[in-house]
Amino acid sequence: MGVAVREHDPTPIRVLVSSFLTLIALGTGLLLLPMATPPGQPIGWIDALFTATSATCVTGLVVRDTGLAFTGFGQAVILALIQLGGVGIMTFSLLVMRILGGRLSLTSREVLHSTLAGAGVFSDLWPLLRLAFRLTITAETLGALMLFAHWHGEMGFARAAWAAVFHAVSAFCNAGFSLWSTSLMAFRTDVLVNLVIGALIVMGGLGYLSVFELQEGRAGRRRRSLHTRLVLRTTAVLIALGAFGFWALERGHALARMDAGDRLVTSLFQSVTTRTAGFNSVDFSSLAPGTLFLVILLMFVGGSPGSTAGGIKTTTFAVLVLASWGRLRHRTHVNVGGRTVSPLTVRDALTVTLAGIATVMVGLFTLLLLEAPAATVVERHAVFVELLFEVVSASATVGLSTGITPDLEPASKLLIVLLMFLGRLGPLTVVFSLARRVPALDIEYAEEGVMVG
Question: 45 and 32 in contact (C-beta within 8 Å)?
C-alpha cells in the first residue's frame, strides 16, 4: 500500500527554490546594513535586491560598482552569496536527493535528474558530494594562491590577498563579479591572469559529474559516460568556435591595436567567459553588432549541467544538433559515440530550449515596454540589441552587459532580478515547484500525422 502524500508536503524542488529565495532575502538585508556601504552612500532596496540576486544566482550583472560602492563587509557578503549560490546550494541539492531519494515524485526525479546531469544513476551520491566540496576548495585555493603570487608585488599583501580570493571564488562559481570597475580590462594582455581565471571558469562550468568521471577514469575505475563525452567535446568546440569568431569579427576593432599573441589570449578568454562567467577584458559597448549577436548565441547555450553555469547547457545544445543532423539524413534514432540517445532526452532538450527561448522573448518584450516608453522609434531600435543582450545575459546567468544595467528603470531592474532567478533554477524547475502535486494521466490515442516545416 502506498503512502499518501499531502499536496503541501515539501519536495526537493520546493526546498531548492525556497533556499534560493531565503538566501536572496538574507543577502538583501545584509547589504542594506549601514556597514555594507561607505558612509553617506546607502544603497536602495531595489539595488540591494538586485545585487543579492545577481550574486546568489552567480550572474554578475551589477547596478553598483562592487569595489567602490561596498565596504569590505559588503564585499564579503557578496562573496558569501556567490559561494553559497554557486556551490553550496548545488551540493545541498545533492544531499537532499541522497536523503530523500526513495520518496521523490516522478516529476521531482525528472527535474533533479536534468539539473544534476544524471546524478540519479548513482546508487550512492556521497562520492559525488565529497568531490564537489574537494574540487571547490582545491580549485579556489590554488587559483587564489596563483593570483596572489602574481599580484602581491604591485598591490601589497592585504589588497592582493583579498582580490585573489574574491576573483578565484567568483571565477570558479562562474559569477563574473569583479572588484574593479572595468572588470579584467586592465589585465587584457596578462597571460597568467587570463589562464588562471579561464581555467577556473572551465572547471566550474564542466559539472561535478563530468569531473567525477574524469577522476575515476584516470584511476581506471570508470568508463566515461556519453554525458561526459558530450560535455567535453561540446565545450571544446564552443570555446574554439567562439574564440575564432571573436577574433574574426573584432580583429579590426577591439583587437586592432594588439599583437598576434594578445589577440589570441583575449579572444580565447572572451570565448570562455562569454558562455557562463561574465568577466570581460574588452569594452562590450564598443563591440560590433555581429560580435554582440555571436555572444548572445554563446550565452544562450551556457555551460554544462550540474555545474555553476547557466544557459540551456552544452548537452542540450549537442543533443538538438545531433537530432537535427540525424533527421536531415533521414534517421529515426540519435546515435553518437556508439550509443543511442533516448527519445525522452531529445524531448527534454527541446522542452528546455523552448522554455529558454520563451523566457527571453517574454523578458525582452516586457523590457522594451518598460524602457523609455516615450522614446522615438529610432531610439527604440537603437537599444533593441542592448536590451536583448541584457535579457539573455540575465536569463543565462552570464553577467555580461553593454553598460546599460545601472541606468535601467526600477521596474526593469526587478524584471532582470526575476530573469536571473529563473535562469539559475531553470524556468521548468520554478514552474514545477508551484504546480499542484496531482499525478498526470499519460494517455496515448491513435496516431495521426501533422504537416510541419
Answer: yes
